[in-house]
Amino acid sequence: MKRHWYDYLWIASAAYLALGFFNILFAWLGLLCFFIPLIIAVVRGNKAYCNRYCGRGQLFGLLGGGLGLSRKKDIPRWMKSKGFRYGFLLFFFAMFFLMLWNTWLVFSGVRNLSETVKLLWTFRLPWHWAYHGGTSAWVAQFSFGFYGVMLTSTVLGLITMILFKPRSWCVYCPMGTMTQLICRARHRGEEM
Question: Where does 63-176 show beta strands of DSSP type E?
């Protein structure tokens, strides 16, 4: 089977996590994982990002399938349901907007910079070694918050990868759900 350049995007996902461990400002690169799938869905009307370019999905496939870290069980039906996927998307949005709110509070001077990463939206992990100054406090606050979102989604993906099939995270991934909604809306608009 011929390998393509995009078959190696898992390296970018692994590098992103590693870079954020050493310098939190690299967290801003994660915005690419937010905007590129949405742009592809809007412009092309498909989920090419999820199916071909998602480095995180590739990383889970490699770890779970290639390295055998997955039990390779089917994901439960309730996790595939619209209710769970849309509920998780709403929850994810709420956590994302809370992160933006905290960034705004630091920007407006109401709150001081918190050099912590929130894992699973609950556990505050000290991450002070990864920030070396040299930028506005709100820029750093966004970095800590966004890295927490990305790390949390990676941990959830790893857990579902181990318990179920390697790319089980893709079933309820908020970006996948959003791109699916965009594609449906776009195709409905074309039918009219």
Answer: 116-119, 123-126
Q: Phi then psi for 119, rounded to 5 degrees?
A: -100, 135
Distance CA 119, CA 145 (A): 10
DSSP assignment of 120-161 equals TTTEEEE-GGG----S-HHHHHHHHHHHHHHHHHHHHHHHHH
Nearest residue to 157 via CA among 81, 54, 78, 83: 54
Per-position DSSP letters for 163-191, written without gaps between them: HS-TTTHHHH-HHHHHHHHHHHHHHHHHH
Vertex 149, ends 167 and 21: CA angle to 5°? 95
Taken in order 56, 57, 58, 60, the sign of the CA dihedral is positive
Helix (H, G, I), strand (E, B) or coil at 192: coil
Output phi, psi for 126, to 5 deg: -60, 135
pLDDT, residue 83, reads: 97
Residue 123 phi/psi, 5° resolution?
-90, 120
Residue 3, classified by CB atoms within 10 Å of its CB into exposed (0-12), middle (13-18) or buried (19+), is exposed
Question: What is the model's pLDDT at position 72?
Answer: 95
Backbone angles phi, psi at 125, to 5 degrees: -105, 125
Q: Which residues in the chain come in under a pLDDT of 50?
A: none
**What backbone phi and psi angles, to 5 degrees, belong to 108?**
-85, 0
pLDDT score recorded for residue 109: 96
Contact in structure between 4 and 142 (CB atoms under 8 Å): no
